[in-house]
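User: I'll paste a sequence; please echo it back and then give the predicted structure.

Assistant: Echoing your sequence first, then the prediction.
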Amino acid sequence: MSDEHVMHGPEDGPVALEDDGVGIDILEAEGLAVEPVTQWDLFSTRLRRHRLAMIATVFIIFMGILVLVAPLMQSAGWIDPPTKSLVDPNGRILRNIEPRGGSDTVFYNEFIDGAQVAIPASTTALWFGSDDLGRSVFSRVIFGGRASMTVGLVAGLLVAALGTVVGSLAGYYPGGVDQSLMRFTDLVLGLPLLPVAIVVGRILPEMAFLPS
């Protein structure tokens, strides 16, 4: 396998070259700097030249940092049950719920009016405003993104590991094993994603070793 080198010219910038021996010697004799490059150098150069790819990379990095520091940036609780006026933001009880009819069971049937509870997005208390139950939309977005990116990262790592194992076996054992693995891969790629995801999501919660 031939090595790749990069040529630094006076105008065109770095150019990747195949090391055939003769061409490199000629370029060096003409005073052009030639040095070996790695696959990472080639990848980073192509990435910097692709504007949309750079924008997507910056956005993904920003989202990754955002979901990592999500607990520090949440503007309000996102898992607490919504209340109307029982407690204030400092946690002090404003109104006690008294038992009715001498029973130990308390039936509290006061509903929340969404128009009175919802907070507009312009307020500094909740950056994205609130939904009709008074919950912080910003907190729900960043925690939802945290779960989504975690699932995507874990799924990507599992797929990469499985693909490495299958590809290694297919390359090391040509013939019947190779053909069988390739046909199995074609079968998996041909399955519709959404129905399979629905079936798997329905089956997994019923397994004893998984938390409910």
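Confidence is low (pLDDT under 50) at residues 9-22, 81-85, 208-212. The first helix runs from residue 22 to 29.
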